[in-house]
Design a protein that fits this description.
2% strand, globular
């Protein structure tokens, strides 16, 4: 088990080093792209990548401390530790894919992958409560991600008039350059689906109901991963579509007003539950809902 913990920490530190190099390169040039433009880093994605690696690194370094008692008492089995390590690196890979992908379809795949991977981290210690929380998380977030999938398809349909090659039709950089020529009605409908879909994953109210249960049952490092970055990764996906909608619609602030509405709703709903919440981890979960609401309000303004 101790070897597994060492491997996890070394692996995450290596990933943090590589990410730091990429962030530094993008900082110097403004943006970098590779793999025929399918992988792309700009100021927005490098900022999120840096935050993600800080959260992952700190959470990984804390793992031996969190599992220390179980390791000493030999109640954490080697198989369980290995499974945790595989899922931990899977979550890191999926979230990195979300941030470095220039293809909005692959970005959606990354978010879907985070759902499948992190669900099994919630029930690492199998109890009736953790299994219930896992199923709630899987069902609610899968419905949300299905909405996001419909939004992605509609966004792709809005770009039909651009007559781009299939391999380039969903590249965000191409859509951004030609945003004025996208179908405004289709893109507005797409944004509603995307906001509800990715907003479910981000924990925006009223789509947040999975979050308190998942937080309260997941190991503390996993809860940190949820609050510290996974919710932000979903909101990052929404942020990618804002300039497309704003420029194509010609109505300044249309998408921002929707964000403002969901942000205010999240703050109010979370505040109402925070007042009466006594379980510490559920309290932190509702604070996450509130914080995402504050970010959404900031974007909306």
């Amino acid at each position: 088990v101790r070897v597994v913990m060492v491997v996890i920490r070394l692996g995450v530190l290596a990933a943090a080093l590589v990410s730091g190099i990429c962030v530094w390169a993008a900082r110097d040039t403004g943006s970098i792209a590779t793999a025929w433009g399918w992988l792309y880093l700009d100021a927005l994605s490098t900022y999120h990548l840096a935050v993600m690696m800080v959260v992952f690194t700190l959470s990984s370094l804390y793992l031996p401390g969190y599992f220390g008692e179980e390791i000493r008492e030999n109640t954490l089995k080697t198989g369980t530790a290995r499974r945790f390590g595989v899922l931990w690196f899977g979550a890191l890979t999926a979230m990195t894919l979300v941030l470095i992908s220039n293809n909005i379809g692959i970005m959606w795949v990354g978010i879907e992958a985070t759902t499948l991977v992190t669900a099994f981290l919630i029930c690492l210690h199998r109890t009736p409560e953790s299994i219930e929380a896992t199923w709630k998380y899987l069902i609610i977030c899968s419905v949300g991600v299905a909405f996001a999938f419909m939004g992605t398809l509609l966004a792709g349909a809005a770009a039909n008039a651009l007559h781009l090659p299939p391999s380039e039709a969903l590249l965000w950089t191409n859509l951004r350059e030609n945003a004025a020529h996208l179908d405004p009605l289709l893109l507005k409908v797409a944004f509603v689906f995307l906001l509800v879909g990715y907003g479910t994953k981000a924990g925006l109210a009223p789509m947040h109901s999975w979050l308190p249960d998942a937080h309260s049952q997941a190991p503390a490092p996993v809860s940190a991963l949820f609050s510290g970055f996974m919710l932000n990764a979903a909101l990052y996906c929404i942020m990618r579509y804002i300039p497309l909608v704003e420029e194509s619609s010609g109505q300044a602030g249309w998408s921002l007003r929707l964000l403002l509405f969901f942000g205010l709703t999240s703050i109010l709903v979370a505040a109402a539950f925070i007042v009466f919440q006594h379980d510490l981890k559920r309290l932190l979960a509702y604070h996450s809902v509130e914080h995402l609401g504050i970010i959404a309000v900031g974007l909306g303004l």
